[in-house]
Write a structure and sequence with these properties.
Helix content: over 70%
Strand order of the largest sheet: 1-2
Strand content: under 5%
Number of strands: 2
Oligomer: single chain
Radius of gyration: 31 Å
């Protein structure tokens, strides 16, 4: 007798009902993932209009003209040069596209960064689901990645887009490699290599990927010393070596490794600082408070480092013992190994940079640490349901608390990154007053100066000078503030100090020439302006000062020549037109004077508008 096949309401044979449940489960997991993405978008929304900061952001658009003059020739430069001491051609290409289409509008820049964070969230889910075969584990890891406050720096800071971009292609490489391990199709291995190459073009930190691939081989019980496994990795290691050499051969990087070395630390200090580095990331994983963009190297009290550097050795010892006790557990070894491999590239074994740790370095490495407790809890559910039922409520409560922390902490950190003043105030507040912090005072002082808050600017430049009296910029900027406050003698003193520290800076001579002119030191003003033109022949301010000097000397021919040259160099030089108009009035050339007043008025010069109304009706 023929068996009758039962049908469900959708017309699917009853034997496939389990498949329908799986499909529904898969659909619901993507719905939950969509919710995580929407949560991330909401948390980061208040940072989409943050400013371009003087913490690297401005350098891309001020110091590299090829970024603001996009062309195919410029693209070649992106792939052949270094930017802010890094080889990162694809992120730089993205900066150029931002500027080409929307100028210095920060919304598209931040939206681009946020897009890559969201893209990474989705990729984290896909890879974790492949790795664990558990959608709930993948969702929880994706949630932790999406909302962890340590990740704000990598997302909200415009310059840090290389972190999320390299992570995205790194994850794609891992996804294709994991598929290769499951299917054996060489196409997946080739795609993994291609994604790795793109990741390397985003940031040099991607060089760790071949070691992570070996870790994946271990996780999947492959024979690590087999001929096939070794041959697969050779192209990956070759790429890592090439890009590693490209990175360290940069002149700025070599400077950091030699002249930038912190020689005040002995080998024992360096050992404890390495322990502190790993401990820092472990502590901030579960307690992401007092975060900061800059964590300076510790000042020493005599021969001693701060106490937490010694305590970090105890924490690392406890972590090492815990790892040893779980040495048979592959998920623990994989998660810990992933963290250690990907974070190790950023550990300052030799103190050669100006900050010891940074938040953004944890962006991808934390995935390994997120995975361990979530996967262990999932495993416990299948192996010891009674114990799981006791632990699960606490785990759910901890996840809920951490989610609430993220919901409040992420927008709060976004606000810190909103302007130079808020950002640098945070840096100053959370660091000891060591030498490097003079830059924070100096940059915040400059921001106060631009905002017209001269007294606060003056205080900050003075603080910067106390921390480092060898930087000419602090004296120059304080001199400019004194000039704005009409304290010309104090301005002259600071500008003289600035010139002694940096005799080849046109801005110093230009500012000093104007102060000397106001102090009736005409010869000194003329000498400084001519020095400016030696250093920068196209400086219109110096030409204008020389024109004023010539006018006072009744050398009207030289005065006209200087002003005409300045206008030729800068056709929108409103002050030049206005001053030349005044010269023409003196020379009884009213038609020429009116022509220049009209031009200056059209360019926005208010005094020229008044002169136009007075002489040109």
């Amino acid at each position: 007798m023929k068996k009758q096949v039962k049908k469900n309401i959708a017309g699917v044979p009853g034997g496939t009902q389990k498949s329908v449940k799986v499909a529904k489960s898969g659909l619901s997991s993507w719905v939950f993932l969509g919710g995580i993405v929407l949560l991330a978008l909401g948390l980061y929304a208040n940072g989409l209009h943050n400013d371009i900061l003087t913490f690297d952001d401005n350098e891309y658009f001020q110091n590299y003209p090829e970024i603001t003059h996009f062309s195919w020739k410029s693209v070649q430069q992106y792939f052949s040069g270094y930017y802010v001491i890094m080889y990162q051609p694809i992120p730089v290409f993205a900066f150029a596209l931002n500027y080409h289409f929307t100028g210095l509008d920060t919304f598209p820049m931040h939206a681009f960064n946020l897009f890559f964070h969201v893209f990474c969230i989705v990729l984290v889910y896909i890879w974790m689901q492949q790795l664990t075969k558990n959608k709930m584990v993948a969702l929880i890891v994706s949630l932790l990645f999406a909302i962890h406050p340590m990740n704000v720096e990598a997302v909200t800071w415009i310059s840090a887009r290389s972190s999320s971009m390299y992570t995205a292609f790194y994850l794609l490489s891992l996804i294709f490699y994991t598929r290769y391990l499951s299917s054996g199709f060489k196409k997946q291995l080739v795609l993994s290599g291609l994604m790795f190459l793109i990741s390397l073009f985003c940031k040099a930190q991607a060089v760790t990927l071949p070691v992570v691939l070996i870790l994946l081989d271990f996780y999947y019980h492959r024979k690590l010393l087999s001929r096939k496994v070794i041959l697969e990795k050779i192209p990956f290691f070759i790429l890592s070596i090439i890009f590693g050499l490209v990175t360290v051969l940069n002149e700025g990087t070599i400077h950091n490794l030699t002249n930038g070395m912190m020689i005040s630390y002995n080998p024992l200090d360096m050992f404890f600082m390495v322990c502190y580095t790993f401990s820092f990331y472990l502590v901030k994983l579960i307690a992401p408070f007092q975060l900061c963009a800059i964590y300076v190297y510790p000042p020493k009290n005599g021969i001693w480092l701060p106490w937490e550097y010694y305590a970090s050795f105890l924490l690392m010892s406890v972590a090492a013992v815990a790892l040893w006790k779980n040495r048979q557990n592959r998920i623990v070894l994989f998660g810990a190994g992933f963290f250690l491999i990907t974070i190790a590239i950023n550990v300052q074994i030799i103190p050669s940079r100006l900050f010891i740790v940074t938040d953004r370095y944890a962006y991808m490495p934390y995935l390994g640490l997120f995975l361990i407790p979530v996967m262990l809890l999932s495993k416990l559910k299948t192996e010891n349901i009674i114990r799981y039922n006791k632990i699960a409520p606490m785990a759910i409560g901890a996840l809920l608390v951490f989610t609430i922390v993220g919901v409040f902490a992420v927008p709060a950190r976004n606000k810190v990154w909103s302007t130079d003043i808020t950002f640098l105030t945070d840096v100053i507040k959370k660091n000891p007053p060591v030498g490097y912090i003079y830059r924070a005072y100096g940059n915040r002082g400059f921001a106060y100066k631009l905002a017209g808050r001269n007294q606060e600017a003056l205080d900050d430049f003075t603080a910067a000078i106390k921390l480092d009296s060898t930087d000419s910029r602090s004296f120059l900027n304080r001199g400019l503030v004194y000039a704005a406050l009409q304290n010309n003698q104090a301005a002259l003193y600071d500008l003289n100090k600035a010139e002694a520290l940096n005799p080849n800076q046109p801005l110093i001579y230009n500012a000093r020439s104007q102060i000397k002119f106001l102090l009736k030191d005409i010869d000194g003003a003329e000498s400084d302006s001519k020095k400016v033109l030696e250093l920068n022949p196209a400086n219109t301010d110096a030409l204008n000062t020389l024109a004023n000097i010539a006018f006072n000397k009744k050398d009207y021919t030289s005065c006209e020549n200087y002003l005409t040259k300045a206008i030729t160099i800068q056709p929108e030089f409103a002050l030049g037109y206005k001053n030349r108009g005044l010269l023409y009035l003196q020379l009884n050339r009213p038609a020429d004077a009116c022509s220049d007043f009209v031009q200056a008025a059209n360019l926005g010069n208010q005094e020229a508008k008044q002169l136009k109304g007075q002489y040109c009706n």
